[in-house]
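Entry 0007
Protein: DUF371 domain-containing protein
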Amino acid sequence: MSDAESDVGDVVDDPLVEVVRAVGHENITAEHASTVELTTDDWLTPAGDCIVGVEADRTPRDFSTSFREACQEADATITATFAVGEPGDEAVDVDDPAYVAEIAGRGDPDLTLLDDRSMVGRTSDYTDDERTIFVDGDGAAADLDRDLVAALAADAPVTLRLEVDPAE
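Output (structure tokens):
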């Protein structure tokens, strides 16, 4: 199990929640219509139009086994909450972030969540890589609020909270 931060900022021991911290980058455009991504890389080219955070402190490989297994249920709901601070902030105040966006997708038996470099949420049902963290998402990078994207392009910090609600 891994420690994760709740939506009110408290540290909890919840195997169905994972938290990833990253920062924005001047080349963030968030224009991709079918994916949204965070990477551990400390650089970004303009071609990376799905990337909304660099220097991520965790990858899918770091996620708890319980979390990964719950994501492999086809009827599981996976909610990605992006909390973004102001440019110049050291970290996101998760109790009062400057910007918040949420994308919900579903799990799939073919999700492995084992990549050690990046994570991708998808609006499609594509699962053929270890980076995919959810499929059939109700949004992607292009759907994010443009003020949130502008903050990320000015190097604002971002905290991604992933929560899986297993199928009943």
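Curator remark: The chain has one domain: 3-165. The CA atoms of residues 75 and 140 lie 20 Å apart.
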